[in-house]
Amino acid sequence: xxxxxxxxxxxxxxxxxxxxxxxxxxxxxxxxxxxxxxxxxxxxxxxxxxxxxxxxxxxxxxxxxxxxxxxxxxxxxxxxxxxxxxxxxxxxxxxxxxxxxxxxxxxxxxxxxxxxxxxxxxxxxxxxxxxxxxxxxxxxxxxxxxxxxxxxxxxxxxxxxxxxxxxxx
Length: 169
Description:
This protein is α+β, with helices and mostly antiparallel strands. It has a domain at 4-17 and 65-138 and 146-168: 50s Ribosomal Protein L5, Chain: A (2-Layer Sandwich). It contains four helices and seven strands. The chain has helices spanning 24-37, 70-82, 134-137, 153-163, and strands at 8-18, 42-45, 60-67, 86-87, 98-102, 122-130, 167-168. The strands form two sheets. A five-stranded antiparallel β-sheet has the order 2-3-1-6-5. The mean pLDDT is 89.
């Protein structure tokens, strides 16, 4: 039997819609995320200024929602149906996390078209970790997590293949 501390688990699933500016579009995106995920959506802010798009640092430019636990894995499995349970290997980063986009929300299983919202797509980002990473985050008795305990791209691909039945090209 494999060591429980070495297996990869889903830390969180983050859903993101970038709108580019505040207003009615942002409110529509927020309500869409809340309807699809069942979690509270929060605004995202610009980290740098971009004069071409008239964006200042700190402007609200999008919205995101975070899912954890069994509901997160369930959501990812639904979202992967849109992609046909297939992802390119470039979707995985060097820490084993992976992400993909859903081009139109009506492709998501169980979602109905709402003319007030229009056509919006969203990003799904899956953050993986191993058990025991809390020692690096906790307030008291903080310790470093060794590089042997960190996840790699291959670990993330293995998790996607075994747990989510994703075909990685």
